[in-house]
Design goal:
Blueprint lengths: L13 E2 L3 E6 L4 E6 L4 E3 L6 E9 L2 E10 L2 E10 L3 E12 L6 E13 L4 E6 L6 E3 L4 E3 L3 E5 L4 E5 L6 E5 L8 E4 L1 E5 L4 E5 L4 E3 L2 E4 L5 E3 L8 E8 L6 E12 L2 E9 L8 E12 L8 E10 L5 E4 L2 E10 L5 E9 L10 E7 L5 E3 L12 E6 L6 E7 L7 E5 L3 E5 L4 E5 L1 H4 L8 E5 L4 E8 L8 E12 L10 E11 L3 H14 L4 E2 L6 H10 L4 H12 L14 E11 L4 E4 L3 E7 L2 E14 L7 E9 L2 E8 L2 E6 L2 H8 L3 H4 E3 L5 E6 L2 H14 L4
Parallel strand pairs: 48-50
Antiparallel strand pairs: 1-4, 2-3, 3-5, 4-5, 5-6, 6-7, 7-8, 8-9, 9-10, 9-11, 10-13, 11-12, 12-15, 13-14, 14-17, 15-16, 17-18, 18-21, 19-20, 20-22, 22-23, 23-24, 24-25, 25-26, 26-28, 27-28, 28-29, 29-30, 31-35, 32-33, 32-34, 35-36, 36-37, 37-38, 38-39, 39-40, 40-42, 41-45, 42-43, 42-44, ...
Helix pairs in contact: 2-5, 3-4
């Protein structure tokens, strides 16, 4: 059949050999089928039709496969023009330029190929239709495209209100998918350029390209993104990494580098994360494993990086996308004017930059020496001294208040708080806490104090405060003062206790009542330390407002409970001595008392841990009681003749008590002069500078 471009019905040149002809007059159609080889179409060489050609009054039609050097069109009905081919329902394959494979594969499309104009225009017949680009290992739902045969490009079009979906079909990319507004395929390079890509989800992160243009290279690898933004994770969006260079390797894997903002008051800072990776983590099969983004970056000393406004850091910073806070692994150093001996200390802590609380458990210096924070008692010198992230004078020194938990800086008041994490955060009133005031260089500790830990067969439970100047010349001992609330457990025969309790209650009738509610900042935490149950603590706080301190029966196992009594550490005595003559007695023998009496106390803690305890209680001008404990012997004497006689009359089994460890605890009647000497000793010792 000759080509006809001028007639009413335009037809192409067509040639077939050894054909079978079937003429259907009533349909006015001739069906021609080539028996030997494909039909040759058009004047140009290289165009063929495999199947059946149908000559009709409206032109030449075909059923089967139209194929040429660059592609293949398969349809049940193809309409041919002089150098055109069109179909309303067809499958189109476009070959790679090297002829080794298929570059473009689109199914169920309606379109036309115009070889005169060297272009093709197609549109899918359904929204669910997909086009596959095998060389790039992608498929897309973009259902309208134009093929420029001369430039060797394919340009996609999409509904502005409905961007196209792009899905990787590479086996190792787990159907990575994202949406784009435009797409352009260059057959010369086999690069797929996708425009209008706002975000790509990989692993547990959102990756926002800088230019919204994505390039897919042959084989399906996405070209590295530059200056992108990463937000992770996709649920909480805790972290943002800017100016990121990103390699998206699949739905569950990406690798990147980038900059993380760590801005705090007064410091705009960035962390360069050189090892960002989102990947599968944990147990399970490959398809069920969780995904997690992690990142790490190194901070050098010369970076002058601040964890908070007063704390420098050097070392490694680690990000986990499912955790709000970064983890710091390395060394930190506090910048404080009044804090001497500032050194780098080891740190392994997660830190919330909006409210930095820094963990200092098991801290060491760069030489590996353990660092302590709190108040300590020197075994060698008898000095009570505070320490902030420094080695103790000696590792055998006694911790009076150990505050090596966390620390936090209060910029408004220029002070640091160290201790139990819940206490420092203000969640609870229990636990150790120490505050360093950088304005004046003083330090104050609070909590349950390790007083009298070397005592045997009696016990002191002390809560309260200790304080000292932190700055001092090396040649001068620290001056340490405090405020204690103490529970004192002593083994005393019941007959003696009954006499003493009756005497004290009777003779203290006119004594001043104890006042608690004017000093809640002391009593609230101190009382909390002496009560084991949270419900009981809440009740005790309510009682405090009504000027009552009532310990639950299960917690009040003490012979005496003393309220707030100021003390001072005497280095020469190696003792805490009560500073005031009048002190509140909260309870006696487990029962509320609530009177202010003359009370002198000494908590002696020598370096050899042969601890001692002395208390003198004087409820009236002519009645006093003295108890002095040392090395398993309790010396007891009173101004009450009845009490002394009762003590002398005790049987030996009541005064010499066999203890569980096999040793003997002894109650010894003392000379009244011992009590007088003790009072004078306290008065003299507490005046010592």
């Amino acid at each position: 059949m000759e080509e006809d471009r001028k007639g009413a019905v335009k037809v192409p040149q067509a040639k077939g050999e050894n054909v079978s002809v079937n003429w259907l007059p009533f349909k006015d159609s001739m069906y021609v089928e080539s028996m030997a080889k494909n039909f040759e179409l058009f004047k140009a060489a290289g165009y063929s039709h495999k199947g059946t050609l149908i000559l009709t009054p409206s032109g030449l039609k075909g059923r089967g496969v139209f194929e040429w050097t660059e592609g293949k069109l398969t349809s049940k009905l193809i309409s041919y023009g002089p150098f055109q081919a069109s179909a309303d329902t067809a499958d189109l394959e476009i070959k790679s330029l090297d002829g080794t494979g298929i570059a473009f594969d689109s199914r169920n499309i309606d379109g036309e190929l115009d070889f005169d104009a060297q272009n093709g225009a197609f549109k899918a017949n359904s929204e669910s239709a997909n086009t596959t680009l095998p060389l790039d290992q992608y498929r897309t739902s973009m259902n309208e495209f134009t093929w420029d045969m001369r430039k060797k490009t394919i340009e996609f079009e999409s509904d502005p209100n409905k961007p196209g979906n792009f899905v990787s079909i590479a086996p190792d990319q787990d159907t990575l998918s994202f949406t784009g507004q435009t797409a352009f395929y260059d057959m010369k390079t086999n690069y797929l350029n996708i425009g209008g890509v706002k975000v790509i989800k990989s692993a547990d992160a959102y990756v926002y390209p800088d230019t919204t243009d994505i390039i897919i290279e042959p084989g399906g690898k996405m070209k590295q993104l530059e200056n992108a933004r990463i937000v992770a994770d996709t649920v909480n969006k805790y972290h943002t990494i800017n100016r990121a260079t990103v390699d998206i390797l699949g739905k569950k894997l990406y690798k990147a580098t980038g900059f993380y903002e760590y801005n705090i008051f007064g410091y705009n800072q960035e962390v360069f994360f050189n090892n960002i990776i989102g990947e599968r983590r944990g147990g399970g099969t490959m398809s069920t494993k969780n995904v997690l983004t992690s990142a790490s970056g190194d901070i050098a000393p010369e970076d002058s990086f601040h964890m908070d406004v007063r704390t420098l850091f050097k070392g490694k910073i680690i990000l986990k996308a499912n955790q709000r806070n970064l983890r710091f692994e390395g060394y930190a150093k506090i910048e404080a004017d009044k804090l001497p001996n500032k050194h780098w200390f080891s740190i392994y802590s997660e830190v919330d930059r909006t409210d930095p609380i820094i963990r200092i458990v098991n801290a060491k210096n760069e030489e590996g020496d353990p660092l302590v924070t709190g108040f300590y008692l020197s075994r060698e010198f008898g000095e009570m001294y505070p320490r902030i992230l420094l080695p103790a004078y000696a590792r055998v020194d006694r911790a009076i208040l150990n505050c090596t938990g966390v620390f936090k800086y209060d910029a408004k008041n220029d002070r640091f708080t160290y201790g139990d994490s819940s206490k420092v955060a203000g969640i609870t009133m229990r636990g150790p806490k120490m505050t360093f005031d950088n304005r004046v260089g003083t330090v104050q500790g609070e909590g349950l104090l390790n007083i009298g830990s070397g005592l045997k067969y009696m016990k002191v439970t002390a809560a309260g405060r200790v304080k000292s100047d932190y700055n001092k010349p090396d040649s001068v001992f620290h001056t340490v003062t405090g405020e204690f609330m103490s529970g004192i457990e002593m083994t005393i025969p019941k007959s003696l206790i009954d006499i003493m309790v009756n005497d004290i209650r009777a003779s203290s009738f006119d004594a001043q009542p104890a006042i608690y509610n004017t000093n809640p900042t002391f009593y609230q935490p101190a009382v909390s330390e002496l009560i084991s149950d949270e419900k009981d603590r809440q009740e005790a706080m309510a009682n405090l407002q009504n000027n009552l301190v009532v310990l639950p029966k299960k917690d009040n196992k003490y012979l005496f409970v003393l309220g707030r009594h100021p003390v001072i550490w005497n280095d020469e005595y190696q003792s805490f001595l009560s500073l005031e003559d009048k002190n509140p007695v909260v309870a006696i023998n487990g029962e509320p008392f609530g009177k202010t009496l003359t009370v002198y106390v000494e908590y002696k803690m020598p370096g050899n841990e042969d601890d001692r305890f002395y208390i003198y209680i004087k409820p009236s001008a002519d009645l006093w009681y003295f108890f002095g404990y040392q090395a398993g012997a309790m010396n007891v004497v009173s101004s009450s003749t009845r009490f002394n006689d009762a003590m002398v009359g005790l049987k030996s089994k009541e005064t010499q008590i066999k203890m569980p460890d096999g040793e003997t605890y002894e109650i010894v009647p003392a000379n009244p002069s011992l009590a007088d000497a003790f009072v004078n000793r306290v008065k003299a010792g507490r005046k010592k500078e």
